[in-house]
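Data deposition worksheet. Section B asks for the primary sequence of the deposited chain exactly as it was used as input, without tags or linkers unless they were present during the calculation. Section C holds the resulting structure in token form. Section D is free text for depositor observations; keep each observation to a single sentence. Incomplete worksheets are returned to the depositor.
Section A, Depositor: J.P.
Section B:
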Amino acid sequence: MAVDQLEHGPLPEPCVALLVSGGHSSLLLVDDVTGRVRSLGATIDDAAGEAYDKVGAGSRHALPRLARPSTVPAASGNPAAIRFPRAKLHDGTSDFSFAGLKTAVARWVEARRDAGETVPVEDVAASFQEAVADSPDPQGGRRLP
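Section C:
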């Protein structure tokens, strides 16, 4: 978050942040970047980073270079081209999972390939990244800013 502040200026206080890593993701309430940070929820199985890794891996369902969020294919794609599912909230808590998203991308790509269609890699990459970023607000199911 400090790097984001250096790049884009001060964050609103409080704000909500989605912390994404390879094995775990957390939804955080940040009252002050230099002070209090409170966990609102976390991944129960597949984290966002793990979904990036698995979708972008070398499997037959994969897309080239999708494992890195800043790759060229996603940057040139249309994030609204494909409506992939969003992270699922579980058991009335704010804990969530990206497992369904990962599976949905693999099935979508596989169906296009099986039908002999061209897979629009840039649009799939951008739509996948949009689905990761479009996580629900645990208080109201709204998109995070």
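Section D:
The two ends are 14 Å apart (CA to CA).
Confidence is low (pLDDT under 50) at residues 137-145.
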